Automatic annotation (TrEMBL):
Record-annotated DNA-binding residue ranges: 125-224
Domain Response regulatory: from-to ranges: 3-117
Lineage, broadest ranks: Bacteria, Thermotogati, Deinococcota, Deinococci, Deinococcales
Domain OmpR/PhoB-type: 125-224
Entry-annotated residues carrying 4-aspartylphosphate: 50
Protein name per the record: DNA-binding response regulator
Entry annotated with the keyword DNA-binding: yes
Any GO MF annotation of the entry: DNA binding
Domain of life: Bacteria
Database matches in InterPro entries: CheY-like_superfamily, OmpR/PhoB-type_DNA-bd, Sig_transdc_resp-reg_C-effctor, Sig_transdc_resp-reg_receiver, WalR-like, WH-like_DNA-bd_sf
Keyword terms, alphabetized: DNA-binding, Phosphoprotein, Transcription, Transcription regulation
Organism: Deinococcus radiotolerans
């Protein structure tokens, strides 16, 4: 699941942005200013940035972002009420990848964000698999041995993420950030509970799981099926 950071100071607009991007299947971290942005941007896939912000403008922040060695390639969609051509050009020349003028439609917002993500991310298969486990990302449906699992949205998101990264170990903190979002207020116990629930859906033996393995002192990984076959 792609992670999009939104920086918008108007609460109503921020809520609308979050709603439509999450509805499109994206994970969203929303901020009201650039304060703390450099803490949440590493690992994000795109940034939706308002031009007019309190403290430091979006344009000034964008210039700092483009000067940062780690984050300089972050795809950025600039939002603004400024419609003059000269101002649009200024935003693009300062490093914005795309530009959207307020007011805008939800459909155009989502389409532009998805276009940015397509430019920078490798294609994710529509159907992920690991042995008898099949996860259809588009249909939000998962099956094991042909049996459809009745998963909550968060269970599905966690299963899809782990199946997309078979063999890689993730700490509980990393999973909270990647699946629940950096602004989630729950604790690491949430991850343990969801892993337990997923194991029940998968028919996994907690003592010797074929899929979701506990790596002592580190976290969890999705075992390559060949390891447990």
């Amino acid at each position: 699941m792609s992670h999009v950071v939104v920086i918008e100071d108007e609460g109503t607009v921020r809520d609308v942005l979050r709603f439509h991007l999450e509805r499109a299947g994206l994970r969203v971290t929303a901020l009201e200013s650039v304060t703390g942005a450099f803490d949440v941007l590493p690992g994000a896939d795109a940034l939706v940035l308002d031009w007019m912000l309190p403290g430091e403008s979006g344009l000034s922040f964008l210039r700092r972002l483009r000067a940062d060695a780690e984050l300089r390639r972050m795809p950025v969609l600039m939002l603004t009420a400024r419609a003059a051509e000269a101002e649009r050009v200024e935003g693009l020349e300062s490093g914005a990848d795309d530009y959207l003028t307020k007011p805008f439609s939800a459909a155009e917002l989502v389409a532009r964000v998805r276009a940015l993500l397509r430019r920078t991310q490798p294609d994710v298969p529509a159907v992920l698999s690991n042995g008898p486990l099949s996860v259809d990302v588009g249909a939000a449906e998962a099956r094991v041995g042909g049996r459809r699992m009745n998963l909550t949205r968060r269970e599905f998101d966690l299963l899809a993420f782990m199946t997309q990264h078979v063999g890689r170990v993730y700490t509980r903190t990393e999973l909270l950030d990647r699946v629940w979002g950096a602004d989630f207020l729950g604790g690491e116990r949430t991850v343990d509970q969801h892993v337990t629930q997923l194991r029940a859906h998968l028919g996994d033996d907690p003592g010797k799981p074929g899929f979701l393995e506990t790596v002592r002192g580190k976290g969890y990984r999705m075992r390559p099926w060949a390891d447990g076959a």
